[in-house]
């Protein structure tokens, strides 16, 4: 019985391990989040150009981050997952930057996720755009 429990625990830990998301994953999540958040078509076109300037952007980013396992509404930013996604599992010194951008007193989950995204993208937009690997 103890062996069964140990094997089950190992499987549970292994299956919970973060997987770097692909561009296909991002495209799927974009569509799902646009639908779930009733995002107007005009806004979607702006988002494709990395322009998140309207009232819908914060909850859209929150939704995409949650689906990508980068943010959890209960615990906030999943820093290890963010670093793994941005560096494809090979951290290269961006952890401090990610941690700095995830620190906030914001209580609204949409705003919290969005402010972290905006903070990091100010100096690392290219890295963000490249982080979703193409398979």
Describe it.
The chain is an all-alpha fold and 135 residues long. It has a single domain (20-131), classed as Recoverin, domain 1, CATH 1.10.238. It is built from seven helices and two strands, in the order H-H-H-H-E-E-H-H-H. A two-stranded antiparallel sheet has the order 1-2. Helix 4 crosses helix 7, helix 5 (79-87) packs across helix 6 (95-102) and helix 6 packs antiparallel against helix 7 (109-131). The N and C termini lie far apart (41 Å). Residues 1-15 have low confidence and may be disordered. Keywords: Disulfide bond, Secreted, Signal. It is found in: Secreted. One of its GO terms (cellular component) is extracellular space.
Question: How do the strands and helices of this protein lay out in sequence?
Answer:
Blueprint: H1 2-15, H2 23-36, H3 41-48, H4 57-67, E1 71-72, E2 76-77, H5 79-87, H6 95-102, H7 109-131
Helix pairs in contact: 2-4, 4-7, 5-6, 6-7
Task: For this entry, give a set of tags.
single chain, 135 residues, mainly alpha, Recoverin, domain 1, two-stranded antiparallel ribbon, 2 strands, 64% helix, disordered N terminus
